[in-house]
UniProtKB/TrEMBL annotation:
Signal peptide: none annotated. InterPro entries: 5peptide_repeat (IPR001646). It comes from Dactylococcopsis salina (strain PCC 8305). SUPFAM superfamilies: Pentapeptide repeat-like (SSF141571). Gene3D superfamilies: E3 ubiquitin-protein ligase SopA. It comes from the Bacteria. The keyword Transmembrane helix does not apply. Keywords: Repeat. This is Low-complexity protein.
């Protein structure tokens, strides 16, 4: 007899569907629906959603014998499961809005062999810093503030929401075992007051220097911007050696003479960005989008450019010595 267990969060509804195939074999399927959510803040409103998440299964007295590829045709899967680590990393490409889907039902995950009557499956859905995105903010500041200030404000609020409203794991389901549900956490008045104070400090700060704004917002420039929206920002000449900015959106940003050596920008969007004279040696740009960007005089020696899109990019006097270029797209 088919059994379905479900749990709902304002951002996502998750279901697991088990169907017996024999006494010791079951078919496991997934139901999922992603949505956007709203958060009222002072006199304003914040709209947000997920750009990714990780689905992980823990099996007791059971093991996968076969994985289905069906989920890869329904969701943007960045990392697929193994028998020892049955987890799926869902991740939209950088620069795309958020995950919003109609209800996806009966997505086959695979077949599972059970070794006793006491088998169980626990599914958790977790959200990392890079998986949460602000889509719209109304009533909290003027729309003509500098892109650097806006980017910092969006990131500060996104991480505030992850810390105060998104439990870890976001969802936890159990099949063939007692399951508990948790209420969505809410921020305290003290936390909201502190956030509003920080927003006011950033809005009224007398310059738009990115690292100084990070300091005001108590954001770590090396670790807090993976998956962030930094479109159109001005970061020229900054030392950002070794940052983890995977899946960051830097479309149209001014990155002239920046130091991103040893940095991780895998899957980032850099289309239309100006990286003239940038120091990018030994950086990870796997599957990064450089379409119509300028890399004139940039030093990319030793960088990983596997699968990168370099179509229509300005590569005048660019140093590409010892780069990994497998699958990279040029004109």
């Amino acid at each position: 007899m088919t059994e379905t267990v479900s749990q709902t969060h304002p951002l996502v509804t998750l279901s697991l569907i088990t169907t017996p195939l024999s006494e010791q074999e079951i078919n496991l399927a997934l139901g999922i629906q992603f949505s956007s959510a709203d958060f009222s803040l002072a006199q304003g409103n914040v709209k947000f959603g997920l750009t990714g998440s990780t689905l992980q299964l823990q099996l007791q007295e059971a093991r996968f014998t076969e994985f289905s590829e069906q989920i890869n045709h329904q969701l943007p899967i960045e990392k697929s499961p193994t028998v020892d680590a049955p987890s799926w990393k869902i991740a939209l490409p950088a620069g795309i809005d958020i995950l919003k889907t109609n209800a996806l039902e009966n997505i086959e995950l695979g077949k599972i062999a059970t070794s006793s009557e006491n088998w169980s499956i626990e599914a958790t859905l977790t959200v990392e810093k890079s998986d949460l995105q602000i889509t719209e903010i109304e009533g909290l500041w003027r729309h003509d503030i500098h892109p650097n200030q806006q980017a910092i404000l969006h990131r500060k609020i996104a991480l505030f929401l992850r810390e105060t409203q998104l439990s870890s794991p976001l969802i936890s389901l159990k099949v063939n075992s007692p399951s508990t549900s948790e209420n969505t956490p809410q921020p305290s008045e003290k936390q909201i007051s502190s956030l509003l104070k920080t927003i006011e400090q950033i809005k009224t700060f007398n310059n738009d220097h990115f690292l100084e704004l990070c300091e005001i917002a108590a954001l770590n420039p090396k670790l807090d911007f993976a998956g962030a929206n930094l479109r159109g920002t001005t970061l020229r000449g900054l030392d950002l050696n070794g940052v983890n900015w995977s899946r960051v959106n830097l479309r149209g940003a001014d990155l002239t003479d920046i130091d991103l050596s040893e940095a991780n920008l895998q899957g980032a969007k850099l289309s239309g960005a100006d990286l003239s004279g940038a120091y990018l040696s030994n950086a990870n740009f796997k599957n990064t989008d450089f379409h119509r960007s300028s890399l004139a005089l940039a030093n990319l020696s030793g960088a990983n450019l596997q699968g990168a899109n370099l179509q229509e990019a300005n590569l005048s006097q660019t140093n590409l010595n010892h780069c990994q270029l497998e699958g990279a797209k040029f004109d």
